[in-house]
Amino acid sequence: MQNVSGINEKEQVLKLLKQVKDGSISPDDALLNLQTLPFEDLGHTNVDYHRGLRQGYGEIIYGQNKTSKQIKDIVSSMLGKGLNNIIITRICQSTANFLIEQKMDLEYHPIAKLATVRRNNKIKLKGSVVIASGGTSDIPVCEEAAITSEVLGSYVTRLYDVGVAGLNRLLSRYNIFAKARVIIAVAGMEGALSSVIGGLVSCPVIAVPTSVGYGANFNGLCALLAMLNSCANGVSVVNIDNGFGAGYIANRINRMESIQ
Prior knowledge:
CATH topology of the largest domain: Rossmann fold
Helix content: 40-55%
Low-confidence stretches: 1-7
Largest sheet: 5 strands, parallel
Number of domains: 2
Strand order of the largest sheet: 8-7-9-10-11
Number of strands: 11
CATH architecture of the largest domain: 3-Layer(aba) Sandwich
């Protein structure tokens, strides 16, 4: 993965090691720097700066239930460390407006309720992540997954409203599904979309149940259980409405070097 926030932490450590090697910094001073790298205590949040070293991408900010000031403090701390491509999930329009007023380079996606700060649009998108929704009402969750994958470096194709109530819509896009490296199937109601797709393709399928549906859907529980009980092989399931989680793992699968 190139030009994403996790590289900054790796570059910092590598720079320190090179400085120790050439004598421009003492081992004691380098140790002091390393001791301050793991996290920063902001009082309300411990920002994890070693996550990029461990996982390849820096910490994601979960915006829901955080105040605008808390999010501003976290973003400011990350920007101070030279990070870019910062992702904030579940963020409302008013908080996004507040951050924009603070002169932050923020791009807000209202449908997904997701924001990026200092996004690097020069990243070369790779592979093929296909995101399919059962209905139009599932699009917010799809967009959270799609934008997450794109920011992390994956090429995304969106196929919306191709649910099993009109199977011809899904089958007409089979050539796109067949070329995908990973597919995210997003559906509420009875959650059958992931099983149908899983039975048609050879790549991994990530099922995302949504809370879309009438009373017996139980706010997504029906779709979740149906997806967990899928008879199609190669289908995994994330939590209800968890577009971010699906987009993150889809990017990891998509960008694996072993997949050609």
